[in-house]
Amino acid sequence: MKQFLSINDVPDPSGLVQEALALKADPFAFSHLGKHKTLGLVFLNPSLRTRMSTQRAAQNLGMDVMVLNMDKDGWQLEFEDGAIMNGSSQEHIKEAAAVISQYCDVIGIRTFPSLQNREEDYIEKILGSFVKYATVPVLSLESATLHPLQSLADWLTIEEHKKREVPKVVLSWAPHPRALPQAVPNSFVQWLKAAPVELVITHPEGYELSNEFTVGVPVEYDQNKALVGADFVYAKNWSSYNDYGKILSTDSSWMITEKKMALTNQGAFMHCLPVRRNVIVADQVLDGPNSLVIQQAENRTYAAQAVLKRLLEK
Amino acid sequence: MKQFLSINDVPDPSGLVQEALALKADPFAFSHLGKHKTLGLVFLNPSLRTRMSTQRAAQNLGMDVMVLNMDKDGWQLEFEDGAIMNGSSQEHIKEAAAVISQYCDVIGIRTFPSLQNREEDYIEKILGSFVKYATVPVLSLESATLHPLQSLADWLTIEEHKKREVPKVVLSWAPHPRALPQAVPNSFVQWLKAAPVELVITHPEGYELSNEFTVGVPVEYDQNKALVGADFVYAKNWSSYNDYGKILSTDSSWMITEKKMALTNQGAFMHCLPVRRNVIVADQVLDGPNSLVIQQAENRTYAAQAVLKRLLEK
Amino acid sequence: MKQFLSINDVPDPSGLVQEALALKADPFAFSHLGKHKTLGLVFLNPSLRTRMSTQRAAQNLGMDVMVLNMDKDGWQLEFEDGAIMNGSSQEHIKEAAAVISQYCDVIGIRTFPSLQNREEDYIEKILGSFVKYATVPVLSLESATLHPLQSLADWLTIEEHKKREVPKVVLSWAPHPRALPQAVPNSFVQWLKAAPVELVITHPEGYELSNEFTVGVPVEYDQNKALVGADFVYAKNWSSYNDYGKILSTDSSWMITEKKMALTNQGAFMHCLPVRRNVIVADQVLDGPNSLVIQQAENRTYAAQAVLKRLLEK
Predict the structure, then answer these.
(1) Contact call for residues B298 and B19 (beta carbons, < 8 A)
(2) Residue C235 belongs to what domain range?
(3) Residue B98 forms contact with A (CB below 8 Å)
(4) Does C132 lie in the same domain as C50?
(5) Is the pTM of this model over 0.90?
(6) C223 to chain A, minimum CA–CA distance in Å?
(7) Smallest Cα–Cα separation from A307: which of A49, A60, A47?
(8) Which of A83, C16, C32, C267 could form a disulfide with C230 if both were Cys (CB 3.0 to 4.6 A apart)?
(9) pLDDT the model gives residue A73
(10) Mean pLDDT for chain A?
(11) Does C292 share its domain with C303?
């Protein structure tokens, strides 16, 4: 693997899941692989889980880690070709990406969508520029439209907890007070389509995800119908793709409650965290025995470790 | 030891002091103990000495360290049970503490008091929630009401520099322009009561510390009287406990000067730092040969190292 | 070497250049030299290249690294002797430098000029206070008036790319929208005067650097004349030294363009980065085959590594 920006960089997603499970069973088996190798983590946006899990993953492989909080350091980057830089931007992405590549063997980068300009967000303008000018492998720590490390960890969690060969997995929209990216649901659909599961999406009308990801996946607008027989309920808020970046609904009847979970096949509850309690999901569900959110967070480490291992082995 | 929140977690405070002194004599004797172990340092408030000394202590033991500045990253936590999180809080302490526990073998956390709500501060609401939901040992890097790593380092310093079996130690209030926590004096009293010293507290009326800590320790309202014959003078400002969080006095006659020190038994001057020069203490005292403030700072490393060693050995 | 604040701390600058080149050829040859040693990086101002390259250099030598962002943490230092600290300063440099020295074996520090008070800037008041009170070797990560790690990396880059024994090197002022320090040009002149090169400085009138550095180096006010026959063109903006800290010109005819470079001896283009594209230098030059800016950035690692090696060996 020469980069990790989406599932498209992974020739064998199932194989990668198995590799992550093997690393979970023996986290220090490859602790010499990363010797004298440095992972640079570049954050253009805040992060807790991704920051810590990726750092731990790198350390398990014996890598050194350097963290660069470009958002906090007020380092403003220029992304336009030909720009006359006499304004507030201090450095062009061309130099920034090439320079960081001098100090790191692998670079992880987190970017966010504008939620204003759909075209720029969906061509992954910022991540794409970074990849274009970096000279070492780049690892997405979440981009404008995808969050592949999260999806890999989610698949891992489903693999560990499934009770039948082909479980039913329901991705359900849930309300949230702020406009959020579509990265997690896009990426979840992209990965889980490749997994041995029956995938169903449910959301209010107007919240259709980009067809690029959902083609072939059934959408059920009636959440209750969608939940029937589900083995896994993956809740997540996202803002509208069609009416780009907008909040079309805050309908609390979409919150995942015990009553909703009673429709499922004793289904497990999943969420990528951070989660708004009693907005996305009721306390009873999140604190109940079928909640897998902490296991998902734990699996972030082994997802990142499997990916880093492959990038180091390339 | 399964946690370190106060002296109450330490069955043998004197033994821990001896262990710290042994580590100071041979800092890398246990440099394999922390192999493949990660210390997470979570700061809800800024820190210089604690941040660096604890990091150094962990590295001396061979641990990896991850630092999370939650205060700077604008990650707002919810602490109320049952909260409907549709406001500014992004994540509940239940998830945050459990998730961070997935990536760390030991977690150090720094919190601060509100100085508004005494009850919440003194039940250690924030630290307590963190400990409740964390699944790995927690180490206090200073909490709302206590600073046990500082007190252990202070005891260490007194042990190294005492000239008689049972030295007289005077904890003296001193003026300061801002309202400060009672954590350092509370904790100092709690630890030094267990040490082979004669402990006396002196402060203006109204500055009584919580009886929970001071019971059995003489309080002398006349600073000059208190200082007579002192072997160690530990200066510190704190805000009022009774009139909670208030500044009742900025009386500069309480500043520690050479004249004050002349009353002592050629006493040593101590302060946890940072210190306001010529407000808390006069330059002549701080720069004089009997000032131990830098030695106290140095001992922070070995205090933290002894505690981490025990947490790793548990 | 017991410190590294300027070329004056280096008995054999050419030897240090050769040592850096040797480390570049075999970066991990001394990976045990830094075992159990900690480098503290203290930033009073933001940094990308210096932060990452110095960290990488330390890790190549096997050192642990601790980073302290004093600018971000709002830790306000007092530098005046005898100050009554009842204002906003929380800690005196006397304690801060002595305390940080307890936790580190070498300290790197970045400070910036005020660009208001020339005398204070040019006596290096802040760095000087830090060095005075630190008890371990101090490494400048750029100070008010000098940037020696950058200059060493620049010399290294010229050494690697020169096509004749004594190349002509032109330091050229270029326009910029903000008032910048004189640290890079001062330091470049100070180092390159000691190198086997023909050094020429060109800038508009009023931009004369301090005579302390430029004595003996020809200044040519006609940029075109200066560039004739140049093997290396080092562009950099700085604010006025005489009319201290002021922007006297933003004349875009000083921008380095292909037309300007055509005057040179197929000269290479150099800049310390970050660089304002199409303000300091035209895209065509920066993106052209003779641009060495990324190589300069790469060489920052080996410059820092050579210096750290000497500080550890002292």
Answers:
(1) no
(2) 150-297
(3) yes
(4) yes
(5) yes
(6) 22
(7) A60
(8) C267
(9) 67
(10) 96
(11) no
